[in-house]
Amino acid sequence: MKKLLVILAVLTANTLLATPPKEGKLTVSWVFCNIVEGYDHDTKCVVFIDGKQVGESSVSKESQKNSITVTASSGSHNVKVMNYALYEGNWEEHSIANEYSIDCSFDNSMSIKPKSMLSLLFDIDSGTTATFKKLKGCPKKKS
Questions:
Q1: Which helix or strand (DSSP H or E) is residue 135 part of?
Q2: Fewer CB near the terminus (10 Å): N or C of the chain?
């Protein structure tokens, strides 16, 4: 009986002292392309992981690249990034539903590692594109 209690105590201690999941960092960066003259709005991005808001970027003009880094446990998560535009003193989702040219958002499952990257290209002419590589800016137009 004593041996059973000792084994049970050791197993319980090992379970309680188990290594917590590793922390991951996700850097989300974005750039706008083909901005219509006169519509260089103040914008910001809000990041949600598994439905919980985990970060909000600084405010910048559409014409400026921006980024935010958030933390989450490593592993598979639903990641949502929503861009907001400041219009007449109110922040609103930068979406077609709000009469913008494109939906400036990302909502998908992805694996977060100790260092992860998500780059979003908000192209007014062709929509939103996501990649897991670093963006250098707007692609050159083919002539």
A1: none
A2: C
Q: Alpha carbon of 67 to those of 13, 17, 47, 88, 142: distances in Å?
A: 42, 36, 11, 24, 27
Class of the CATH domain delimited by 21-131: mainly beta
Res 57 pLDDT > 70: yes
- Supply the pLDDT for residue 28: 97
Q: For the chain, what are the domain ranges? A: 21-131
In the structure encoding, which two tokens stand for residue 90, read together?
């109110």
* Nearest residue to 120 via CA among 102, 112, 110, 132: 132
Q: Taking 70 as the threshold, does the pLDDT of residue 13 lie above it?
A: no
Task: Judge contact between 128 and 106, C-beta under 8 A.
Answer: yes
In one-letter notation, the amino acid at residue 123 is: D
The tokens describing 138, both together, are 């707007």
Cβ atoms 105, 82 nearer than 8 A? yes
Alpha helices in the chain (DSSP H): 2-16
| CA dist., res. 86 & res. 40, Å (int) | 10
- Higher-confidence position of 6 and 133: 133
Give the per-residue pLDDT at 17: 55
